[in-house]
Amino acid sequence: MPAVLAVGALLFSAGCSSDDGGSPGSASASASGSAVRGSSSPGGEATPAAKGSVEVVRTVAEGLDSPWGVAVLPEGGLLVASRDEGTITLVDEDSGKKTELGEVPGVSAAGEGGLLGIALSPDYASDHMVYAYFTSASDNRVVRMIYDPKRSPGDQLGAPDTVFKGIPKGMIHNGGRIAFGPDGMLYAGTGESGDTGLSQDKESLGGKILRLTPEGEPAPGNPFPGSPVYSYGHRNVQGLAWDAKQRLFAAEFGQDTWDELNAIEPGANYGWPEVEGESDDSRYRNPLAQWHTDVASPSGIAYAQGSIWMVGLRGQRLWRIPLKGTEASADPQSFLDEKYGRLRTVIAAGGDRLWVTTSNTDGRGAPKEGDDRILELKVS
């Protein structure tokens, strides 16, 4: 097993039981307050530099209300989901103009629930389907809708077709990130809704990463026959991304001690609630990197320039985790520390660019004039 490189003293912070990171605990950690597992990987992959850089190029858009999921349209434009309003807005990435496309019916926004992740169909060019993960009155579910830009603004979303339902809901830990993988299957990160026992129950949809066909059936080749469950033992997954070799990574909220970035393997058990962060128990997969909860509370992740980029809510910063294979090749490095408040979503924008959304109007931040906003970053 690779050696563990511990950076900084072990800190215990209290009161981070919610996914978004509530009030800060009494302990604090510096940007280096993390632990990294390092090893080499086969295949002769180029390893990114140990130290990177981030430049804020511009503000793409302002005045967004509780932005959560973001999808990039191939014809240009960003679709942005409002958690609390239950609406999807088209943002012109050049001018910053915002056009509300419509409201997703059935969204029940309370606590950490509402309209969360969105993703485009793998066949978007022909079917114009937009997928959305949201909290309803009874559960968390995934629907799909036709986006018709020829209709009048405010009425451009078709009636939702429920693709998958029955994911446990709660005031906390609703998961919510969805993404289509390189295999064309739909992946969904779920939370255990505050019921920790669900994470280890492979019959439950809570505390899992699910893998579905675009029609919402358990995907072929899943590790548990007939089940949508792809991995389990998660607390609350809100970040999904694939690297250049199509390997899946996921960010996960811890409770009081460790937040995690995991390399995901089908059928693997990531330990919650039996362990939080790294352990010596071989039954559970260890994270490739972990952070004290006051410097992370991670939501979205993206892959660019050989690194995973992870945004933090309570931590109010952007983390860079350089990769070699499925291991971190150097200590994580933080940027934008407390400059823009809470950060929710990060999207690879091609080449050396990222788009990052703030999350200061979600009831837990301190909104400033212009919040919430989308930033364009140049990274290395």
TrEMBL record:
Entry-linked InterPro entries: 6-blade_b-propeller_TolB-like, Glc/Sorbosone_DH, Quinoprot_gluc/sorb_DH_b-prop
Low complexity bias locations: 18-44
Domain Glucose/Sorbosone dehydrogenase: 64-364
SUPFAM superfamilies in the cross-refs: Soluble quinoprotein glucose dehydrogenase
Region of interest (Disordered), residue spans: 18-51
Database matches in PANTHER family: HEDGEHOG-INTERACTING PROTEIN, HIPL1 PROTEIN
Name of protein: Glucose sorbosone dehydrogenase
